[in-house]
Amino acid sequence: MTEQNEIALEAEVSRKVMAARLAIGLVQGLLLYWLYASARDLVWPATAPYAMVPLMMVLLILPVLLISSLGHLRPRQAVAWLSVALAVLLVLAFHDAWRGMNSHPLLSNWEQKPFYSPSELLVFFSVVFFFIAHTLVLAGVQEGRRIAGYNTYFETAWKLAIQLLFSAFFVGVLFIVLFMGAELFMLVKLKFLRELLQKSWFNVPVICTAFSCALHVTDVRPAIVRGIRTLLLVLMSWILPVAVVLVSGFLCTLPFTGLTALWETRHATSVLLGAAAVLLVLINAAFQNGEAVVALPLRVGARTAAILILPVTMVGIYALGLRVAQYGWTSDRVIAAACLLVAAFYAIGYLWAAYQYDTWLKPVSVVNVWASFLVLAVLLALFTPIADPARIGVNSQMARLEKGKTAAAKFDFRYLRFEGGRYGQAALEELRQRTTGPDAELLRREAAAVLAIAPKDRWMLPKKFTAPVSIAANLSLWPAGAQLPASFLAQQWELTQDDQKPGCLSRKENKCDAIVLDADGDGKPEVLLLEKEHGNAGYLYAEAGEGKWSVAASVSYRETACKPLVEKLRKGEFSFVTPRFKELDVGGRRVAFDNANLPVPECGTIK
């Protein structure tokens, strides 16, 4: 861009444009705060998915597009582009809401009433989608044609990327300064700024306004942006030889190490995709717009990297294929497959460019432009019903269950519940009502249990119930001659969750010391279980009504890890003493005092 063009740009982006951009940022912040407040207070639109999800997506992305368009697109062009962007956003948002994976229960709300928001994947990939689309639009308008020259795409894309990066950096530094000011005022007992920074009605509009301000400043200073870009690309390009050596070394070791260790990681595909993406970025850092003067080592490294992308991608495809063959499709694997499709396009194109010796990777420019359109098409397919990952994943898992490839006992019901959206819900409802088939009862029970899990309990580990071959065989009774109560042995311990009982009541390989004592002095025995091989806390079981035993108290790990103490318990060399502090009875609730300040003899002093 010449100096005259820079002057023209600065004149075009006038003070009125700056005021408009700041106003847009402020309005965006106020509206986003409104959405935040509705989610906090559980009122409309946060409680209506078909209102909240589209509003959130539009307010997050459309104002940024508008700010970036001012001064670069004519009003008619801006209206046309933003209308298309709005239509695409609404399609993506409504489909995201329809999928039914947007509810988030507030833990502080006893009724667990949910609020709604866009899915994290939609937000992330929408940013990628509109970054690419906005670059294509701005470059096309600048040259007055649908497919612009590669140099214009290069200039526009890197300018937008640096604008966004440094705008976020500006907002971060601004708040660092504000917090520093708050602490300074606190030194003189003035709390107003600290309290202000705790208010969302202040923070959200300030973030958006500051972000729009930074976008404007970086827009009217293209020389500064170009200087930062040049420095960044030069530094990144010199990392390329290092990446080439590492990736080459990795590929060379595969014939000797084999692929088994690679598959055992269970995240090989994501790592390989990351490696391919790094090579792509570093190649473009060296290539730039195709006209930069590049040192010979970088030219060799870029050509080598362009060749390496294909084997890395092929190994990733093979890794994903193995996982799909073993376990079927899931949402994550569908998204990985989409990423591998794009990576394969790049890999083939860059391999072709690497063998054009007379032009030094010149075809990379053509590959990059058409890959951008491919990425847009893939993202539209993923976030519309065309190739919805949730639908594909649920259909695959259900097909494997029907064909017997996945046993009913090993079927992942939680995947359908929490990652399958409305497709998973429908599949679980079908399983809950199934009446035919060898595993119908198991499928009905498990489907009903998973459907009953509240969204707030999504990340809790599933309940596990197991039983040993013989409870009596797992327990060593103490003191000598003691006997376990018959009701304790007769209890169905398999009905108690594994995380609520020691291992000796769950697995035959675990053993416990069982010390029979009368801890509460009511004349009925209690049973203290101490695991022999694991220094876990001890469980004191007491008999409740109808012969049911449950945990009444516990002994801390500090005590059970002391071998002399455990040995004395086995021999019955202990007595009961009255606690130093009585318990409080507060409204029917028992409150015990912690004796943390009392001196406790060290384990070595017990003889």
TrEMBL record:
One of the Pfam families matching this protein, by short name: DUF4153
Q: Which UniProt keywords apply?
A: Membrane, Transmembrane, Transmembrane helix
- Transmembrane segments in this chain: where? 18-36, 48-67, 79-101, 121-141, 162-188, 200-218, 230-256, 268-288, 300-322, 334-355, 367-387
Asked whether the UniProt record includes Ribonucleoprotein among its keywords, one would answer no
InterPro entries, per database record: DUF4153 (IPR025291)
Q: Which domain of life is it from?
A: Bacteria
- Indicate what this protein is called per its UniProt record: DUF4153 domain-containing protein
Species this protein is from: Duganella rivi
